[in-house]
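Example S7 (structure tokens).
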């Protein structure tokens, strides 16, 4: 499928929807278990707290596993786009560019890239404005 502004975000159904839902349901269920166990026996309370701790750990693992992958990808994008800019101009990216703007600029083809970089710096375009301004979308099919 050809990538464009409307379909460039990536969702992995098993991760985002299935695992995410299971983590949220498990966390809610464990929290309810602790609430109900407060009035029960110490063993029930102990088990309920262990289950809650387990689901908190799983929730953090879910969050950070995605966050770490995205941060690594962002660093690669910055390096790739800085190299592309350097190969086209002989200069490094303007220091005014934010990471979110650089990430958005990766979708611009070389013919639009330099003009869009200059416009982004001059007009302080948001990532969404950058993506909308791209006429010939350059897909990124290798993202996390």
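Recovered sequence:
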């Amino acid at each position: 499928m050809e990538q464009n502004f409307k379909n460039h975000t990536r969702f992995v159904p098993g991760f985002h929807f299935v695992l995410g839902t299971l983590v949220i349901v498990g966390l809610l269920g464990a929290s309810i278990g602790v609430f109900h166990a407060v009035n029960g026996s110490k063993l029930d309370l102990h088990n309920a707290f262990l289950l809650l701790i387990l689901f908190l750990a799983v929730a953090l693992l879910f969050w950070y596993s995605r966050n770490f992958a995205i941060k690594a990808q962002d660093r690669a994008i910055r390096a790739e786009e800085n190299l592309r800019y350097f190969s086209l101009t002989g200069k490094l990216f303007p220091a005014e560019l934010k990471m979110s703007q650089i990430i958005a600029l990766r979708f611009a083809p070389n013919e639009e890239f330099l003009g869009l970089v200059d416009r982004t710096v001059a007009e302080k375009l948001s990532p969404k404005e950058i993506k909308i301004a791209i006429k010939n979308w350059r897909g990124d099919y290798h993202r996390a």
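Notes on this example. Residues 97 and 121 are 7 Å apart (CA to CA).
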